[in-house]
Specification:
Blueprint (H helix, E strand, L loop, with lengths): L28 H12 L1 H16 L2 H26 L6 H8 L2 H30 L8 H16 L3 H27 L13 E3 L6 E3 L2 H15 L15 H30 L3 H6 L3 H10 L1 H35 L5 H7 L10 H14 L4 H8 L2 H19 L13 H19 L4 H22 L15 H4 L1
Antiparallel strand pairs: 1-2
Helix pairs in contact: 1-7, 1-9, 1-12, 2-7, 2-8, 2-9, 2-12, 3-8, 3-9, 3-16, 3-17, 4-5, 4-16, 5-6, 5-12, 5-14, 5-15, 5-16, 5-18, 6-12, 6-14, 7-9, 7-12, 11-12, 12-13, 12-14, 15-18, 16-17
Pfam family, one: AA_permease_2
Protein name: Amino acid transporter
GO molecular function: transmembrane transporter activity
């Protein structure tokens, strides 16, 4: 097959050989953080996931999201150390492949290959709900299809242009979160001590009742999912200047800002709501709080801001998805006829256009799948990705003690706490029959990844899955 122009054709590597940079290395720490935070979309997390958590867990949201924030920072330490040692595009797949082993890496790749486009579809199908406050009669599916196309085309542009664009939208959504925090803190209705006793709405009495420990643990898992995305900084390692230092900083800054920008508004809402019973009983608690404290006009503006925040997140995730597929193609983790096309980088924008477009096409098709099916298919994948990252951090420190780069504090506490927390998540999921399908699908992805590696890639180890070293520090400048 004739290869497209500018395809990266990397021969089998000698030890220590690194990739020749092909992407546009124009991002600083700030630009990386802007795109990463955009993919997390703290505003949509607060309104959608935070709102659902307020209804289900009441004041337990404070403790659940606080504990989840601590766990997320510890996971971020693992990401930062691995990203510093292996600053290669491809996100979790690249880190796990190099630090834990190619079989785990391929399983991680398959999880991300499926989950990223499905997450884009989930976000896109939710855009109409928020644009609908200003434009009546929008179809969720038709709106989603248009949004996916626009966002995919945008993600094919130069990375620096995307950083500026996502930064503008990010400023708008952070302003909306700041407004929520201010409204809660200037209308405080109860002391902080009321948060120390987790309580939720009792449907039988209409009053507050203590939240069970099991419910609190589920609130923690909801918080971890809400904060998810700070590891996305790794996808842009080859487009970030001085990556062995800058990407670690971008991960930690993204994690810290995310936790603060979600936990503070949610805490302010708990303290500033006129009635906690009414808040927890509302179908859309955050919107109800906003309408009560700011009025309908401000609420309309903020909900439109959330719509743009979701679109912003789709652009950022599309950027990540394209770099995942590009990195795997460059590693020859795919059959060569496919890999030769997917590792093409546009000469002008220095962007993996074909890989990004393919992932966008998958997301486009996923918009025709029922939303509950999409949610089920992506439900437990995050836990496996985090588990592999934590295990990779342990194995990296055990195997490569002399490798230069960032070293996480309190070693080995961060990865061990993460592994323990994730083990608890798996136990809770296993004990809840409602989670069995989601858990089973995720296990299926992992098994399929290991099967693909051992049956296809390992027998072709001389020509496939060539995990070259990170880009040299000289090339990174």
């Amino acid at each position: 097959m004739k290869k497209p122009p500018n395809a990266v054709d990397t021969p089998p590597a000698a030890a220590g050989q690194s990739y020749t940079p092909s992407l546009s290395r124009t991002l600083g720490v700030g630009g990386n953080v802007l795109i990463t935070l955009s993919s997390i979309s703290p505003a949509s997390s607060v309104f959608i996931l935070g709102g659902a958590a307020l209804t289900a867990f009441g004041t337990g949201v404070f403790w659940g999201f606080l504990i989840a924030g601590i766990v997320s920072i510890l996971i971020a330490f693992c990401y930062a150390e691995l990203a510093s040692a292996y600053p290669v595009a491809g996100g979790d797949y690249s880190l796990v492949s190099r630090a834990l082993g190619p079989a785990f890496g391929v399983a991680t790749f398959l999880i991300s290959l499926v989950s990223l486009p499905l997450i884009i579809a989930v976000f896109a199908l939710g855009v109409a709900d928020y644009l609908g406050v200003a434009i009546a009669g929008l179809s969720s599916q038709q709106t989603a299809l248009v949004v996916v196309v626009i966002c995919t085309v945008t993600a094919c542009f130069n990375i620096r242009a995307n950083a500026w664009l996502t930064g503008v939208f990010l400023f708008i959504e952070m302003a909306a979160l700041a407004l929520l925090a201010v409204l809660g803190l200037i209308h405080i209705e109860r002391p902080v001590t009321t948060l120390f006793d987790p309580q939720t709405l009792d449907p039988a009495t209409g009053g507050l009742a203590p939240l069970a420990i099991a419910g609190l643990m589920i609130a923690v898992t909801q918080g971890i999912f809400s904060y998810n995305g700070y590891g996305g900084a790794v996808y842009f390692a080859e487009e970030t200047k001085n990556p062995s230092r800058a990407v670690a900083k971008a991960v930690l800054w993204s994690a810290g800002i995310t936790v603060a920008s979600e936990l503070i508004p949610l805490t302010a809402i708990l303290l500033g709501a006129s009635s906690q019973e009414a808040l927890f009983g509302s179908e859309l608690p955050v919107e109800a709080f906003l309408a009560d404290r700011a009025g309908d006009a401000v609420t309309l503006f903020v909900l439109l801001a959330v719509a743009f925040a979701i679109i912003n997140a789709i652009i950022a995730i599309a950027l990540q998805a394209g770099r995942l597929l590009y990195s795997a193609a460059r590693d020859r983790a795919l059959p060569e006829p496919l890999a030769a096309r997917l590792r093409w980088v546009s000469p002008k924008g220095q962007s993996p256009v074909i890989a990004t477009s393919v992932m966008g096409l998958i997301a486009f098709l996923a918009c025709f799948v029922p939303l509950d099916v999409l949610l089920t298919a992506t439900g437990s994948t995050l836990s496996f990705s985090y588990l592999f990252i934590a295990l990779a951090a342990v194995n990296h420190r055990r195997r490569d003690r002399t490798r230069p780069g960032y070293r996480m504090p309190w070693w080995p506490l961060p990865p061990l706490v993460c592994i323990a927390a994730l083990a608890l998540v798996f136990v809770i999921s296993f004990l809840d029959p409602a989670q069995w399908l989601s858990l089973g699908i995720s296990v299926g992805f992992v098994v399929a990844g290991f099967t693909y590696y051992y049956l296809y890639l390992k027998p072709r180890s001389g020509t496939h899955l060539l995990l070259l070293d990170a880009v040299s520090e000289e090339d990174s400048r």
